[in-house]
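I am still getting used to backbone structure tokens and would like to learn alongside you. Label the sequence line and the structure token line clearly, so we can match residues to local backbone shapes. Would you write everything just below, so we can both look at the same thing?
***
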Amino acid sequence: MADNTRKEKSFFNKLHDKYRLVLMNDDTFEEKLSLRLTRFNVFVFFGTLTIFLVVATTYLIAFTPLREYIPGYADFNTRKVLRDLNLKADSLQAELRSKDLYLLNIRNIVEGRDIVEQMPDSLKSQEFFEIAELSRSREDSILRAQFETEERITWTPDPTTESFEPQAMSQFFFFPPLQGIITNHFNPARRHFGIDIVADEGEPIKATLDGTVIFSTWTLTTGYTIGLQHANNLISVYKHNSNLLKEEGSYVRAGEVIALIGESGTLSTGTHLHFELWFNGNPVNPVDYIVF
């Protein structure tokens, strides 16, 4: 028991034993630095240094941008961006499901099936529907062929008729829709019910009289086509345009730009305007009334 007490006292006494740390020149044995140390002072110094390093590291991680360089540590802004991206992804997924349901109902209509309000379980795993994969019924094919070949003005006059121009046409003052060169003249016998006028690309096409746009559309054969209803049952038609500048129902004045010259449609062989005049349901020769 006495030996143990003596050992404990000797340990605590040694903590305060003084030591000298000397730095000397190896060649001249000259003393450069001398420090008086105790074991207790050394323990206090290294303990304080350790606490300082821990506090400094914690501060750098918590309050400075250096924390972003620590592997595995994500800042608050990154988590916010990820959350926003997840919300957008969920919204896009819901929108895609809505589009899938819409396309599915179109397919059901084409194939003569009932419309559904929810996606069937067997199709929920599909990400999208290709429209090209939708089967076409016989009725749908007939309707497509009829629509692609039909024209808005389908009346065919009798080629043997000598003249279509009624006397009332002389009361109109026509504005030339386009200044250019006429390359194909009016010829009802060959089912050419107007004239073809060639001009530079991008030339504006103007309304020949005041009137209302009765159709502004695109067809396979005539391309972008616009038609105006004028007073006294007169109609003017402008075909093969590159752009249409007026919509159906719009009221236009004589000389107002309604389209741009083009070469749209399968019947077009180059940049030109096909211009027609119809009076009381009969085609008339525009050259007889307008100077181009």
Q: What stands out?
A: The two ends are 133 Å apart (CA to CA).
